[in-house]
Amino acid sequence: MLFFSYFKDLVGREVTVELKNDLAIRGTLHSVDQYLNIKLENTRVVDQEKYPHMLSVRNCFIRGSVVRYVQLPPEGVDIELLHDATRREARGG
């Protein structure tokens, strides 16, 4: 639940999602659910030469189980909030 609530706060911001098949997609985070399924809008592929067939895709739904990394915008990371939430999670409450 820690990551789900954190990602909900990033809705409307630009993120880059790297998939397990090495495809990286950058777009505006539209929504995320409790399974960390992600919906992006205004998407573009990071490596357009390697994935030219993805150039026409503008919106996409990404299943949480295929996500390797999510790169967040630097201004979107509140370190103190993450530390506090991690401590609470570790204590079980």
Note down, in words, how this protein is organized.
The structure is a single chain. The chain is an alpha+beta fold. The chain is 22% helix and 34% strand. The chain contains two helices and five strands; from the N terminus they run αβββββα. It has helices at 2-8, 79-91, and strands spanning 14-19, 24-32, 38-45, 59-62, 67-71. Strands 4-3-2-1-5 form a five-stranded antiparallel sheet. β2 and β3 form a beta hairpin. It starts with a helix and ends with a helix. The model has no long low-confidence stretch (mean pLDDT 87).
Question: What is the fold's blueprint, element by element?
Answer:
Elements lengths: L1 H7 L5 E6 L4 E9 L5 E8 L13 E4 L4 E5 L7 H13 L2
Antiparallel strand pairs: 1-2, 1-5, 2-3, 3-4
Biggest sheet record = 5 strands, antiparallel
Count of helical stretches? 2
Shape: elongated
Order of secondary-structure elements: HEEEEEH
Which strand-content bin applies to the residues? 25-35%
Secondary structural class: alpha+beta
Give the helix level as a range of percent: 10-25%
Across the major sheet, the strand order is: 4-3-2-1-5
How would you state the average pLDDT, rounded? Answer: 87
Distance separating the two termini = 12 Å
Low-pLDDT regions = none
Number of strands: 5
Radius of gyration: 14 Å
Features of this protein?
single chain; 93 residues; alpha+beta; five-stranded antiparallel β-sheet; 34% strand; elongated
Short description:
This protein has 93 residues and is α+β, with helices and mostly antiparallel strands. Helices cover 22% and strands 34% of the residues.
